[in-house]
Amino acid sequence: MVHERPDNSTPPLPRRLAAFALCLLCVLTLSSRAAGEDIDAAKAAKVKAAYLLNFAKLTKWPESRFADDRAPIQIVVLDDREFAARLRSTVEDRRLGGRRLEVVDLAHTPAKEGKPGEERDAFVKSVKAAHLLYSANPDYEADSPQMLDLLSLTEAADVLTVGVGKHHTRAGGMISFVVEERKIIFEVNLTRVNESNLKLSSKLLSLARIVAPDKAPPR
Fold first, then answer.
1. Which end of the chain is more exposed for a tag (fewer CB within 10 A), N or C?
2. Total count of domains within the chain
3. Is residue 5 part of a domain?
4. How far apart are CA 207 and CA 212, in angstroms?
């Protein structure tokens, strides 16, 4: 079920959609040598940061995911400190539903045999506390231990999982950035979203390519 989120502290819907359209304009003008090839890193980061902000705007989390009415929306960026800094600058001074956005820079800490240890415990706690988790590493294949670890940790936590490459949605992630025909687009695994308690705006879904875990095209 999809609903649009009422938000008394953000601009009216037309203005929010205009902001999203501006993000799309950046995407459409993003240059690259060819589909699927490397694109200008700075431009790509700018576009992805704008996308993530709009994903947060157009997603509704259960109230149980927040300690109180003033608790922030946590966006965790995994394995990319430079992008985390850019995103932090993008969302600075922004509030959604009266909540500020907090960007957390996190490095993946895998589980070890035997006792997990303090670092692993802290990593698990940070991942499950996230409202939006962005996995920036394109080398995490669909069946890699890292990907399976992340998805198992977020499966029942109502975390909006965003990654890079078609393998992310195929493995069970919710949203993936994909480079096609000289632009960055995004895919949504609607099956996985509907299994959670998250609600994505119909406006966001209308701009996405909808895929399912067993139907997503190969990387």
1. N
2. 1
3. no
4. 16
